[in-house]
Specification:
Blueprint lengths: L1 H29 L2 E4 L2 E4 L1 H9 L4 H6 L3 H4 L2 H6 L1 H22 L22 H31 L24 H11 L4 H15 L1
Antiparallel strand pairs: 1-2
């Protein structure tokens, strides 16, 4: 019964993913762009109209209170630890995941750098966008690596509900279920079948 319910939820998730793709296609039409070879191409008239409304960087910065401007050095100081995290976690995954036999996390699926070059942003806005998309992309990338690591070493749910769960959490054992944990831990720590199935589906879509 439990496995049947899980299968139903997985099917619902797939249906929602298909709906999400359809909504993305509608957005492409709404904002006059298309994606070719993984690159976004806007209509020329839209680019001209967007560029005509760009304000100067000085005017953009002057729209913020002085207190906000003074926080900028603190924001940019964080680029050092996030770059170091990016490097060291990538090294960790490259060395350890093949040994653990865990599927590697594809960095390019999480660290997506595409907003910084939008035609309707001024220079400061472009820099801010680059910083935010890189920083948040690395955080998401690291979280997925941590999630797969946790599944290998300690796939047990917490006793309390989480505000936000990572992608592997639903595969974990219930808190206190020591019988199932002892009986199934070896299989569960390497149960990444859903990732392999997703990879096959993506391959089929690419081939088509």
């Amino acid at each position: 019964m439990e496995n049947k319910r899980i299968d139903e939820i997985v099917l619902q998730i797939k249906e929602l993913e298909d709906e999400l793709l359809e909504e993305f296609k509608k957005k492409e039409e709404q904002f006059f762009y298309r994606i070719e070879n993984e690159k976004v191409k806007f209509q020329e008239r839209v680019i001209k109209e967007g560029k005509s409304k760009i304000i100067s960087s000085i005017k953009y910065l002057s729209s913020f209170p002085l207190g906000v401007i003074l926080t900028i050095p603190f924001i940019w100081a964080m680029i050092i630890p996030i770059v170091m995290t990016d490097i060291f976690v990538s090294i960790y995954q490259a060395i350890c995941f093949p040994i653990y036999k865990i599927p590697k996390v594809k960095r390019k699926e999480y660290v997506i750098i595409d907003r910084y070059n939008l035609f309707y942003l001024d220079r400061v806005q472009k820099i801010n966008c680059w910083y935010c998309e890189y920083f948040n992309g690395v955080v998401a990338y690291v979280r997925e690596i941590a999630a797969r690591t946790e599944q290998f070493w300690c796939p047990i749910k917490h006793s309390k509900s989480l505000k936000e769960k990572h992608s592997r959490y639903d595969n974990f054992f219930d808190f206190g279920d020591y019988i199932k944990y002892r009986d199934e831990i070896e299989n569960q720590r390497l149960n990444f079948d859903d990732l392999l199935e997703k990879k096959e589906e993506q391959k089929k879509e690419t081939d088509v």
